[in-house]
Amino acid sequence: MDFYLLVFKNTTDALVGEEDLKKHEIPHAVYPTPPQIIGSCGISMRFTETELPKVEERLEDGLMYKALYKLSKISIMKIKENEAS
To answer: Hey, which bits of the chain come out as E strands?
Structure first.
C-alpha cells in the first residue's frame, strides 16, 4: 500500500509538525525517515492519501517541512519540496 511521508529539516520542526497535525486532528504516525532520503531529520510523519489534502493545507498555511514524499513498494518519489528550506 502506498503512503505519504512528510520529512523535516530538524527534530524541532518534526515535533512542531507532529503537534500541528494532532491539533488539526489529521491522522498520522511518527515514522523513521528512510536512509535513502538524505539530509533530513530522522523523524517523519506518515499518512495515507486520504489525509493528503489536509496535510497540504497545513503546508500552505506555513507548517515548516523539508519535503513531501510518496512511498510505494518499489519507489520513493518526492512530490513537493519547501522552497524555504
So the answer is: 3-7, 29-32, 43-47, 67-71, 76-81
